[in-house]
Amino acid sequence: MNETETKPKTGNSITKTLGNYSFILIFLVILIAFLLINGGATTWSGVMNILRHSAVVGVLAFGMGLVIITGGIDLSVGSMLSLIGGLSVVVFNATNSPIITLIFALGAGIFCGLINGVFVGLAKMPAFIVTLSTMLIYRSIAQYYLRTLGQSIYNMDGTLSSYDAFYGFGQAKWLTVPVVGLVLIAITAIMVYVSTMTKFGKTVFAVGSNEKAAQLAGINVKRTRVLVFVITGLLCGLSSFLWLGMNGSVDPATIGKSYEMYAIAAVVIGGISMSGGKGRLLGVLFGAMSYTIIDKIIASLGFDALINDTIKGSILLIAVFVQIVVPAIREKIRKPKTI
Amino acid sequence: MEMLKMTDISKSFFGVPVLQHVDFSVEQGEVHALLGENGAGKSTLMNILAGVYTRDSGTVLFDGEKLEHTTVKSSEAVGIAFVHQELNLFNDLRAFENIFLCKEITKKSGMLDKKAMIKKTEELFESLGVEIEPTVMVSELETGKKQLLEIAKALYANAKLFILDEPTTALNNEEIGHLFAIIRRLKDQGKSFVFISHKMTEIFTIADRYTVLRNGEFINTGKIADTNPQEVTRMMVGSKYCEQAAYETRECGEPVLELNHFSGHGFSDVSLTVNKGEVVGFTGLVGSGVSEMFQTIFGVLPMTGGTLKIGDATISMHSIHKAMTKKVSMIPSNRKENSVIQDFTLLENCYVSEHTLSGRIQHIFRRKENKRYCKLEKALNIKSNSPGDMITSLSGGNQQKVILARWLNTKADVLLMDNPTQGIDVGAKAEIYKLINQLAKEGKTILVNTLEIPELQQVADRCVVFYHGHLQTELSRDDMSEETVMLWATNAINSLEVAK
To answer: Of B240, B269, B298, which marks where a domain is finished?
Structure first.
């Protein structure tokens, strides 16, 4: 956006830019804290691992970002990871083909997202309730189906000929950068492009900003609402595929647990308004990475992992405080209310 | 005996006088019609009486007592009941709960005595002849019944003076008859009424006296028996100076919009042909159905009967997108809610509609869009710093021009404008009129719906008047005087005929 460049009149464009990109500030503070705590033990691959470990949640958080910009929410992303991941293992074991597995994962993602989208977009049911329901349903199916298979986790068959290639993809590096991290970067680039430079992207913002006006301007609001959920499903499918490459197995009870919350947090830290219509998808990348770093800080300090969510929750509170309360105070100081 | 005497009342909002030295008095046991156009100051005067606003100067005598520092509560206490135009009911409470809100009957234990309240409500409804179940949820009532409930609620307060602000807008004829019977009965008991309405028929049926306000000034008062609808209308409208400079006669082309027994929600059986390059003015009171008809032509509301022909194509399955592909566009009323996308820049607000028609290429070519916007900005004289400014940073008039640019950007040929100068200052209004005339000259077909008749005189080739969802009449440019239009819009023409 060249918005910030073309608005020098307001005089406080620097503080405004900082406000718009506060997610980078938050990220840098956390990153520096991480580097200081690690001290001499910091390695290049350690830093690159941040990218790698942000990939799964980061990719699906972009879908969450789009959904939230339309004013909705998708609580089912973690469960989609469980269902699509589990079934993808089965598909891989049956076909011995990572490509077919990928196609299946993406297709299943579209299908799961479409279910959410149809209920929210066409039947006009509240997104919170619809995705709360599918959150329960998707994970439950994943767990139930596993039981019928008589196994305790979905395990990729290591004896298959293409197993090594698939698993290798999850661990691979290209010029010292993890490939799954590159996938995250690529998705970031695509999603930032889609949200800022395409006509579809603009409709997403328009629907979130003023649904009535968007409709009367000719935008197909229903289609937009369905599409953002389908895209979220698609990205969940991709996330599942990345997960398989990285881990080789899926425990449907624990995979992606609380990921919907982390994704929402990443979106919010990224500066996207929960009421819709405002924000930048670029922030999602930094939001997701910020949370990964917190995991690493806690691990290297040797804290109990259970304290993890306390710190993540606090960071979220501070981030939102900075984004909402600080501008409000500034506004109050600048122009005292008249009558 | 005088129940109410308001003398020399003045009131300004932010330095703009809305009432100037107004006198108003109501006798005991009379129905007094308070008349005037929108913005004449009727509601302000009544709100001062009811304690919603404080007056700047003047005195109020009520039932022999001087009222000072009136609040809503104190005005209720002395016996003034105000039935507001917009319904002040709680949809999620039951009928009796609404009536007893804040004055609930309780048992000794402090529990609500529902039985007693329901019984009293029943008695109240019975005495008024209102057919509402006391325990029904208000949300389940239709608007007419809600209005009756609102009136019943005020009557329960056992006031001496009732202010009814357009009480019949949602009532059918039978219910209106019922309401009038109630008013007459209470009148005989010595209660007084201030009756605000635009409908001449009703005023001449129920009112004893009238007072006319215009532009915040007292115009006249007198007995209804001594006047007629025409005279009252003339008093309301005045002999306003009407600038006609903007309008130029123009040639109109072949028909582009043909309605044949066209019907939908809120209007029915409209037959009309509009030609290319023509500006047709539509007018009527609030709820006349013009707005709904515009929305139906644009595909927002479903059509329920008749035919709609745009250009050469007869439309059956309609949608906004289809209307747009047929080069029809609509500038809806209530700009803030229905047109402006607040989080978008001027440029984004402008191109958003065109993009829904050119969705095949998804990429936005910023330079090309900027160029197109700048061209429109120049043509429409939009005052802004840059296309990247947020739309909310502009004045109302400039925002409306951006919305106009949005539709010109789609190359629309037919423009439906629903109250296009709502909330726009005088200077910007004149500019919008100029633009409408200019666009018509360029061959655009424009339908304007407005409540302001001087506005029609600025732009319209002819004027179509609606009343209660029906096309009342079509007036040529020469007959478009405010008086004539008002006679048709208030259906006074019929009461005139009845009088004859």
So the answer is: B240
